Structures are given as structure tokens and as C-alpha cells.
Amino acid sequence: MISGILLDLSGVLYTEDQAIHGTAKSLLRLxxxxxxxxxxxNTTRKPRHKIHQQLLELGYSIDFNxxxxxxxxxxxxxxxxxxxxxxxxxxxxxxxxxxxxxxxHNAVLIGDADQxxxxxxxxxxxxxxxxxxxxxxxxxNRYFMQQDGLSIxxxxxxxxxxxxxxxxxxxxxxxxxxxxxxxxxxxxxxxQHTIMVGDDVEADVNGAxxxxxxxxxxxxxxxxxxxxQRISSDQATCVQDFNAAVDWILPRINQP
Amino acid sequence: MISGILLDLSGVLYTEDQAIHGTAKSLLRLxxxxxxxxxxxNTTRKPRHKIHQQLLELGYSIDFNxxxxxxxxxxxxxxxxxxxxxxxxxxxxxxxxxxxxxxxHNAVLIGDADQxxxxxxxxxxxxxxxxxxxxxxxxxNRYFMQQDGLSIxxxxxxxxxxxxxxxxxxxxxxxxxxxxxxxxxxxxxxxQHTIMVGDDVEADVNGAxxxxxxxxxxxxxxxxxxxxQRISSDQATCVQDFNAAVDWILPRINQP
Lengths: 256, 256
Prior knowledge:
Structural class of chain A: alpha/beta
Helix content of chain A: 25-40%
Largest interface: A-B, 30 and 30 residues
Shape of chain A: globular
Radius of gyration of chain A: 18 Å
Oligomer: homodimer
CATH topology of the largest domain in chain A: Rossmann fold
CATH class of the largest domain in chain A: Alpha Beta
Number of helices of chain A: 8
Number of domains of chain A: 2
Strand order of the largest sheet of chain A: 5-4-1-12-13-14
Largest sheet of chain A: 6 strands, parallel
Number of strands of chain A: 14
């Protein structure tokens, strides 16, 4: 039975700047069921308010406070550990970290920096890391879907730095258990009765299963043929798209 | 007993463009012992003739044919497998691969591309790899020594592509067993009586030990405190520099 839902955004509701057919209506059906929903994303090319604005423009009715992003979690981590990071992130994301001190870098923050992934920036990060700075990564995704095809994602550059500096990144987005827990707690649910819906078999599906949630893999966005073979347990299902996911969920709602 | 020597170059004989004190004299002593020597390098920022020219300018007397480079091995591999690679390499190295077809890329060749490691180039490589192209890497070194300190090396970017595309690179330089074997065969030696001298505990020392050679780690170049703790067997020793390595080797020569 299901008491709460975590929903990935890009590749589930929309691809690039295009809503996936029928998803606005399906989301409304889900919302009208009364089930709590939180939206969890590792997107690091846009600040939270821009993601929210885009959702509204695409026709989804979503409360800003229900949006849980990897940069939010990274910001909280950096602040509570009093870290002053060198930021290998997208220029559009800089504002979200503007309140952090950037003198005397003692950490590296990494997201999808896009054109910011230059040799010199990677080397600067590497030199901080071999001197003991921690590596804070907003996700470790392998690739994401762009209009012209799959594209290499920040996780590759996280792995590059981990390898060169012989260190392990602290992941603040999906599939970090703390990240999932904060969203589930916020709904007042428990892991067992929460289902995660996503297009990423690793961060979304296997990440959710690893913390005891249920999961649905959708065959949209970055989904590739055969991804369902990589699901780590039978506590997950794979359906055509978000519309089919809602059809699957609604009869299984745990009515109080 | 020792019948042949493999010698790493950068970090052993010289650092950047500076000979390490006493090494020209020490190399001469080694050469005068009559022991065969081959020079094995993963350097991919310079073509082979430039490396040779630099060695002569720094005062080392080395036969061009005794120089074994990772790009040479990569070239042979690409040619024998009729591959037409997208090249993520340093502009100075392009000439060494100028005879290969570059239409309809069906492979990715990666070396230390330096400023060529842009997001767009990495993404182009990624897209070929997820379509099944093999990844040919001229080494997988983590870092190398520059005048202003340790710098991130091509191995990090190799790892990034392996992770994103879920593939494993074919390594054509050190520590590829085939690469070591070709140099040892060229001397007419066997692995057991050949000793490898280098500053890289992984590619040079552990790589040589893995194929049955002896090895010496020198505390120059990219050597970092504690590297000797990472040596994988007791068939290796660690000394101050190349001069001390020659002192260690000479009394152990296997005179025919």
C-alpha cells in the first residue's frame, strides 16, 4: 500500500522544455487523490525558483515548498559544516550559494557546470582535494536527456576527481539516504509506504529501493532499453510513462 | 639478478624541463655497464621526436629506437583494428595520428588533451561510447608533476568516460602488460630479470610487479610521502632518486 509519493521531474513530467503528453492531467489526478507528493530533483543547471517557474509554465500546479533539490541539500550541508567551497557549478546556480563565504576555499562543490568543466577548473578542484578538502557533489548521475540526445552528466566529473585525488564524494542529492529521508519525513510518511517514480534506474529506482522505499521506473527521459534489467530488487515495477505510473499507483493508495 | 632495465622518463630523469641533478652522469654509468635499457613513457603532451630531442638537449645520450611511448602503442592498436578515432588528445600529438582515417569515427582515443578537455569534447566522446565505440586510453595516470605542483592527468578523464558510458578503456601505455612485454622482448630479456624504475607507484611500480618484473620507486617527480606503503609486493624497493637507483642496480647485474 502507498501513503506518499516522491516524484522525479526531468524525464518524468517533461523532457528539456517540453511536457510529456498527458502528464499534467495525470499529476492532477494524483494530487486529487489526496496523497502527499514531494518533487525531488538532482537538476543543477537551474536555481529552485526557475525550476518552479518552469513547472507552472508547463501547466503543473506545484507548491514551491514541495520542491526538494540537490542544491538545497548541498547548501545546508556546506553551511552546517562551515565550508567555503570552490564551486564547479553552472553560472545560473551561483545565486543559490551567494551567501556562502568564498575566501580560502576549504571544500569543492560540484554540479553540472556544463561549459565550466574546463581542464583548469578541474585542476583547481583536484589541487584542493589532494590537500584534504572534501568533495560535495549534488548527485552522481551518469547522463541526462537533452533535445539532441543523451549527454554526459556531472557524475562523470565527480568520478574523475574522486579517481585523481583518491577521495570519495559526499553526495547531497539522490540517491543520498538523508536526502530521501528529509523529503519522506516532510510528508509525515515512512519509507516502506512511499513510492519513488523516476527515469534513472540508479539514483531514482535503486537509490529508493536501498532505503526501503518502493519504486517505479518510467520508460521516458533518459531511460534506455534494458534498464529494467538493472533494477536491484523485485520491489519495483517498470511502466511506459508517468501516466501509466499514476494508473498503477491510484488503486494501491492506503486510504486512512 | 638483473639483465635489462625499463626506465620511466618524466619525474625520474627530469621534472618539467629541468634535469634532476646527477641523472645524466648516472644514466651514462648504467649505459656503460652494457645492460640493455628501454625508455617507457605515458607522456602524451609531446610527440616522440620532441621527447627524444628534449632528452638530447638535457644531456642524455639515448637512441631514438629505444624510446617506447604510449602513443606509439595506441597507433599500432588503432591501425591493426582499422579504427577511425575521435581524438581527445593534445594538439602537439595530432601529427603522430595524421595517417589514420578520421571519417565516421568508430572509436575514441584519449590522452592528456590539456585545454582540449572541454565539456563539448567529453560529450562527443561519451556519445560515441554509448553507441558501442571502444575507448583507447594512452595510460590512466591520476596526476603528473608540473612546475607549479601536481596536476590532474588524463586518467581522471578516462575514468569519467568509463563511468558515464559504463565501459572499460583499453590502456595502451603503462601498465598495460602488452606494452611492457613489447619493450622487454625488444631487449631480448625476460620479465623476471628486468627491473622497472619509475616515480608512479601504480603504473610504473605495481604495473611492473603485476607482470613479474622487479621495480624501483624513486622519491622524485610525482612521488608523494607514503607512496611506498602502496607498493603491492616486496619485489620492489624505494630509493631517493635515479642516482640511488643506479647505485642499487649496478652490483646486481647478471653478467653473462
